[in-house]
User: What shape does this take?
Amino acid sequence: MFHLNAAEPQQLTEYLQEKGWLGPDETIQTAAKPGEGNMNYVLRIDTGARTFIVKQSRPYVEKYPQVPAPAERVLVEGAFYRKTASNAAIRETMPALLGLDPDNYILVLEDLGEARDFTFLYQQGAVLHPEQLTALTTYMQALHESFVQPEPTDEVLANRAMRTLNHEHIFYFPYLEDNGFDLDQVLPGLQELSMPYRRDNDLKKRIQELGTTYLSDGKYLLHGDYYPGSWLNTSGGVKVIDPEFCFYGHREFDAGVLLAHLYLSEQDSGLPAVFQTAYAAYSDLNQRLLSGFTGVEIMRRLIGLAQLPLTSDLATRRELLALAHQLIMNHEV
Ligand SMILES: Nc1ncnc2c1ncn2[C@@H]1O[C@H](COP(=O)(O)OP(=O)(O)OP(=O)(O)O)[C@@H](O)[C@H]1O
Ligand SMILES: [Mg+2]
Assistant: This one.
């Protein structure tokens, strides 16, 4: 197994040349981390004349090697790029797939440039512009509209191992009364705020139902991790990356995750309506499922392990938790 390693440029050059991803006369000037990521080993290769991205998945989480993760996830990501490139709107919004090495779990992608992702939205006052939200929604609409589950089921894009992992983090772990994760380390007082929800059996029952729906197969191909960390703000407009959690499921999941992050990043209260208008199939969505997934994503990002670089104070998080609870239990908000 070839191990991608920026500290070994000679082996890296030989590997890329052997694969034909680097010409015989090309050399690597720099190989460096292009941006923040936890799950995989990602490098931007610069030859001096051009740049591209290489990404390797290993049988563990890159940032926490003691935590196992499905090794084949980058191959699922490759399959997603390969499949969806047939749609012009998707192709133009994502990097082109330049290569895939299934033996070594390595993916090669077009470099979208030194763009920030949208996690800056969690800073106070940061704004997602309506036209950016419209672009993000148009992408989602094109994806859901163009790719429906084939017969027989596409077992690669069903992505069951990654779904199991995500299910644990979204629907299960945050609600264990004693999960060993001290939320006061995130923000003092957060542990106490979380306890009523973690002791609420009606809430936990509904979250379990939503989790079962998440795990069940659905008709539509989803991005599966449609939040600001998967959106890049490039000079060529808003782009989308990192579909490693993709699967055929219920559209309400992608939509709910996107909406949740509008609330988590305290965007203008008019933005959900922008989404509703831009997502042509909005009236076909199951509203109970949509608000359930929205609420679950808000709650797990506040009290689960996959924390965001939030800057909101305790009072705001209290309000967000109350909103999430209402959304999950489907009271009017
Ligand atoms: N095609 C690309 N063009 C430009 N930059 C990219 C590209 N792919 C990835 N990056 C940069 O590298 C970072 C990490 O990439 P990516 O999100 O795919 O990795 P990851 O390990 O799956 O991350 P995470 O743990 O958040 O899931 C991105 O946030 C982005 O800054
Ligand atoms: Mg990722």
Q: What stands out?
A: The CA atoms of residues 203 and 329 lie 7 Å apart. The longest strand covers residues 41-46. The mean pLDDT is 97. Residues 39, 242, 244 surround magnesium ion (ligand 2) (CB under 6 Å).
